[in-house]
Design brief:
The protein is built from three helices and 43 strands.
């Protein structure tokens, strides 16, 4: 069954969850690169090899050669596969679209892409695949899209909404349907829709530029042949299974990302006591995968999530073992667990400061949930970055503090983009000697001039101003803890911490005739160092 849809210059659109916004400028990481895969960065003219683990950034151009492909994962666990002989450009990456969301656009200049996108909820953000001839809105979908001149797309799951340019109403295709065309779109129900291997065949057929009716016939025929090929592959795999044995169709090594470890194959046994189990690093063992022991070939499929929470992400091998009467057969599967995937690397790093020493000017920073992970620790003081270190495990990191009181921000980001942040105000007050300088002599004799005897009886005292200056190395009152002034043992002035606003003091004293006064000044630095000075006043009668 097929139908034609008018096609005027289209581009492909994929909705993205806004949770991807935290990823800054990185579109994702390369999970797999086979054959010749090159990248040209923005404002550069040379192509360089693109390796596994590399970040993909906005304005990057990526191309593949013959029998080559590259897979990179997005920050929400979705994945994009650039097929052979293709060239794409990350034209936009999470740019605000004015609708409260973000827009990312990948221009497909040549060839096609395969995509696997998680179920999405947000309707404001868009991911655009632009081929120059198609536009489609995808939500939670797996399939392919591409085409040079002849647009084509197919869905294995989900729904694809195609909107011709200049029109508001989209036309939808669903899982199991493939569409292609130039002046108009043809929609076909094909068993191979959305299959990446079939997309290669479809691209070759459409490149022949035959009349539309002939293309439709060729595509339908190719779908039938491809399904027969899949059937023959399954039968060949099954025929290779002797009695009391099994095969594993999962190619080793297995790349582990959002889908986890999926092990598929066939077994044959008549032993009702036989067991077929999957073991991973001694930490996980499946139930018996044998369902029927009738001597015929049966398939099995088992999926295991490998992540840091269940401790399986450090495994590099899995083992399938068939045990029974007179048989004990094992096959090893090599694993490549991609710790840049959010569904593998699920733990957010933790940051804490269990203690800090203001005298030694050191803080103890504890970084947790990083065992087996890799990340970057950045330290900021008052908004300026002061250090950046690579972290490869749980550590106790010593951080040198700057002199004085400062606002520190600690940021940790692991290879999957999980982020942690900690803010803390801390002070650094190394022990240093300082002085308190008196204005005037340490001992003063005050002679009171004679006056009216009646007035002297009414007011026996005189007023004197005590002046002193605190000379700290920092010349900053915030480094002081306490200032105390006592006269004849009685506290007449005391300031603590934020009450201390300056380093120059003028303290009024009331002194009586014929009395000797001892004034003690004690200044305590936040480092604990104390400076003391004494002044004596002797007042005549």
């Amino acid at each position: 069954m097929s139908c034609k849809i008018p096609l005027v210059r289209l581009a492909a659109v994929l909705i993205l969850a806004p949770s991807l916004a935290f990823s800054a400028t990185a579109a994702g990481k390369v999970r797999s690169a086979l054959g010749t895969v090159d990248r040209m960065k923005a404002k550069q003219k040379d192509w360089t090899a693109l390796r596994v683990g590399a970040n993909i950034f906005q304005s990057d151009r990526v191309r593949t050669g013959v029998e080559s492909e590259v897979i990179f994962g997005l920050t929400d666990g979705s994945s994009i596969t650039i097929a052979e002989n293709a060239e794409v450009e990350i034209a936009q990456l999470l740019e605000p679209n004015g609708k409260g969301g973000f827009e990312t656009r990948i221009d497909i200049n040549k060839g096609h892409l395969n995509f696997a996108v998680h179920k999405l909820q947000d309707k404001n953000s868009q991911f655009i695949f632009k081929t120059g001839s198609a536009k489609a809105s995808i939500r939670g979908t797996e399939g392919f899209v591409g085409g040079e001149g002849v647009f084509f797309a197919g869905l294995k799951t989900g729904r694809l909404e195609i909107t011709p340019e200049g029109k508001e109403s989209p036309v939808s295709i669903v899982a199991g349907e493939t569409t292609f065309g130039t002046d108009s779109l043809v929609v076909l129900k094909l068993a191979s829709s959305g299959d990446g291997r079939f997309a290669k065949q479809l691209e070759k057929i459409l490149a022949e530029k035959k009349p539309l009716d002939e293309l439709v016939a060729d595509v339908v025929q190719a779908d039938s042949v491809y399904q027969e090929t899949l059937k023959a592959e399954a039968e060949n795999a099954a025929a290779a299974v002797p009695m009391n044995s099994f095969t594993v169709s999962s190619e080793s090594p297995v790349e582990i990302c959002e889908q986890g470890l999926v092990v598929e194959g066939f077994y044959r046994t008549m032993d009702e006591t036989a067991t077929l189990v999957l073991n991973i690093a001694g930490k996980y063992q499946s139930d018996n995968l044998i369902r029927v022991a009738d001597g015929n070939v049966h398939s099995f499929a088992h999926k295991v999530v490998l992540n840091d929470e269940n401790g399986l992400w450090s495994a590099n091998k899995a083992k399938m073992t068939l045990s029974g009467k007179g048989v004990n057969e094992s096959k090893t599967i090599d694993l490549r667990v991609n710790k840049a995937c959010l569904e593998v690397n699920t733990k957010v790093p933790t940051l804490s400061i269990p203690s800090y020493d203001s005298l030694r000017c050191m803080a103890n920073l504890s970084v947790g949930d990083m065992q087996g992970d890799v990340g970057i620790l950045s330290v900021y003081s008052d908004g300026s970055q002061i250090s950046e270190d690579a972290i490869v495990r749980n550590v106790q990191q010593r951080v040198k503090l700057k002199n004085g009181i400062h606002e520190y921000v600690f940021k940790m980001e692991d290879q999957a983009g999980n982020k942690a942040e900690l803010e803390r105000t801390m002070g650094c007050y190394p022990a240093k000697r300082f002085n308190v300088d008196l204005v005037g002599a340490a001992r003063e004799k005050l002679t009171v001039p004679p006056g009216n005897p009646d007035q002297l009886q009414m007011n026996e005292g005189i007023v004197k101003t005590l002046q002193f200056k605190i000379r700290t190395p920092e010349n900053d009152p915030s480094h002081l803890y306490k200032v105390v002034v006592k006269m004849n043992g009685k506290v007449i002035l005391q300031e603590v911490l934020s009450q201390i606003q300056n380093l120059d003091y003028q303290v009024p004293l009331e002194l009586n005739r014929g009395v000797s006064y001892t004034v003690d000044i004690e200044v305590t630095h936040k480092s604990g160092y104390k400076a003391k000075v004494k002044k004596i006043y002797e007042v005549s009668k």
